[in-house]
Design brief:
It is built from seven helices and no strands. By secondary structure, the protein is mainly alpha-helical.
């Protein structure tokens, strides 16, 4: 049973793999995909990179490792995580990107007042046009990797729940919440192990981004929304700190 049109479009699109369309993945295969996501994250976290040029390597591997494993299992059907991107999809990218900015900003203010917050240091050391260019290129790759890191486990949890006989709507809800916690936990080191910031700001922001995928069944939309959100924040920081000078 589908959610209403406020959540899922009325275009008949459904999530791939969980019900055997276009092919089923076994529990072992899904667990391997999740492990590959974790390995990619570890590479991103611990690969020694001195600047944004060198950071292109771990950012690329962060996306490439889970995607490669996923392609091995799904073969020519791997592209079902994408859909043909239309003008309507582009509008959804912008809408969800703006919504995420609003939600994450509000949550960030509230968490900062109640619990305190740590700054995101992603733009530290970004100075000069060349460094800024590689920073934006690298973060675009990394943000696609973050969508794979979230959406592939979402589809895995959806498959696990469906195998256990859980109704589709409830399975979507469980997968949506579980992967928000998964994503928030991955950001704990980024924010100095501030639990409230990782789960109440980043985890809630993940709910918005995953909702973009739930609505469109197109990882390009959630990736586009993610890039719009993060690039807006990065650009504000870079401009206000004079990093281009």
């Amino acid at each position: 049973m589908r959610y209403g049109r406020a959540i899922e479009r009325g275009d008949g699109r459904d999530f791939p793999y969980y019900d055997g369309d276009p092919l089923p993945l076994s529990v072992v295969q899904w667990v391997t995909v999740i492990v590959a996501c974790a390995v990619g994250f570890l590479v991103l976290s611990f690969y020694p990179a001195a600047d944004n040029v060198q950071s292109l390597v771990p950012r690329f591997l962060f996306a490439a490792i889970p995607l490669t494993v996923f392609i091995v299992f799904t073969r020519r059907h791997w592209s079902r995580i994408f859909q043909r991107t239309t003008g309507r999809d582009v509008l959804d990218m912008v809408a969800f990107g703006i919504a995420n900015l609003i939600v994450s900003s509000v949550m960030g203010i509230l968490v900062s007042i109640v619990f305190g917050a740590n700054a995101n240091t992603a733009t530290d050391g970004v100075h000069g046009a060349a460094e800024v260019t590689t920073f934006y290129l690298g973060t675009a790759i990394q943000l696609f990797g973050e969508e794979l890191f979230s959406i592939l486990p979402f589809l895995a949890v959806l498959s696990f729940c469906s195998r256990g006989g859980m109704p589709r709507k409830r399975a979507i809800l469980v997968a949506w919440l579980v992967t928000a916690v998964w994503f928030g936990a991955a950001h704990l080191p980024t924010y100095g192990w501030n639990v409230a910031q990782a789960f109440l700001v980043i985890g809630v922001a993940r709910l918005v981004l995953t909702l973009a995928y739930i609505r469109t069944k197109n990882i390009a939309v959630s990736t586009g929304a993610h890039i719009i959100n993060d690039w807006a924040l990065f650009t504000f920081t870079i401009v206000t700190t004079g990093a281009l000078l």
